[in-house]
Design a protein that fits this description.
The chain has about 250 residues and is of the alpha/beta class. Helices cover about 50% and strands about 15% of the residues. It has a single domain, classed as P-loop containing nucleotide triphosphate hydrolases (Rossmann fold). Helix 1 packs parallel to helix 11 and helix 2 crosses helix 11.
């Protein structure tokens, strides 16, 4: 039912061509981002939706500001953009592994003890700018427990068909679990706003995660008062003439 509703609203969003919707997903490894995105967006017309996954930045990315690569993938009006990870990685993994910050080639005098607060400010301003231009932002933190992540890692290791999902780096990052939880808490506390809220969704139960995410997206689309464009009287007359022309054909 939720998927059908989402498809209906997405069709109106596309037809109206006024709003854009940006959905951001952040989570620890094995929290189910890929599966949630695939399931929730399964009924959406691919023509009106684009999923972008952001992994380690390329040399070209590192020659730009930390928001740049995500800006290239912002949704157009009438479309839904999905970010599987995002610019928020620069307040998470980069914060925990500050050697990565050095690779961003920033002038040393700009890398102060306040850089994370400054990035939070930049993100809030950026998302406020998007909101004022008709790009609605909704952010989801899929909160998987450490115990459930362990279970899913073992499942991937035991199943040859899922081995490809596992990386030795996943275990290395798991060792920073408590630090990541603090970083996520700081991220959410500093960047949750009225126009770009965070949804913290329990992710141990995949069924519940998908229902909760779909419900939040549908609620957002409902709030936009979407509708199909009204056809002018002149256009209606042209349509009637076209119909009559077709009916008159042999």
């Amino acid at each position: 039912m939720g998927i059908e509703l989402l498809a209906e609203f997405q069709d109106m969003l596309y037809a109206q061509d006024r709003w854009g919707l940006l959905l951001i997903f952040q989570a620890m490894d094995a929290a189910g981002k890929d599966g949630t995105i695939k399931h929730v967006m399964s009924g959406v017309n691919p023509q009106g939706c684009e999923v972008s996954s952001f992994k380690a930045p390329s040399p070209v990315d590192l020659d730009h500001d930390f928001l740049w690569r995500c800006m290239q993938k912002l949704p157009e009006r009438g479309r839904i953009g999905v970010f599987n990870r995002s610019y928020y990685e620069d307040t998470l993994v980069v914060r925990l592994h500050q050697e990565l910050l050095g690779k961003q080639k920033m002038p040393p005098e700009l890398v102060s003890k306040d850089i994370w607060k400054e990035r939070f400010t930049d993100i809030r301003n950026f998302e406020s700018y998007l909101a004022r231009n008709g790009i609605v932002v909704r952010k989801f933190f899929l909160h998987v427990s450490k115990k459930e992540q362990k279970r899913r890692f073992i499942e991937r290791l035991n199943n040859p068909d899922k081995n490809w999902k596992f990386s030795a780096n996943d275990i290395k990052e798991r060792a920073y679990w408590d630090d990541y939880m603090q970083a996520y808490e700081s991220m959410i506390r500093h960047t949750a706003t009225k126009t770009a809220p965070w949804y913290v969704v329990p992710a141990d139960n995949k069924w519940f995660t998908r229902v909760a995410v779909a419900a939040a997206i549908i609620e957002t689309l409902v709030s936009l008062d979407l509708h199909y464009p009204k056809v002018s009287e002149k256009a209606l007359q042209e349509l009637a003439a076209a119909k009559q022309s077709l009916l008159n054909e042999d």
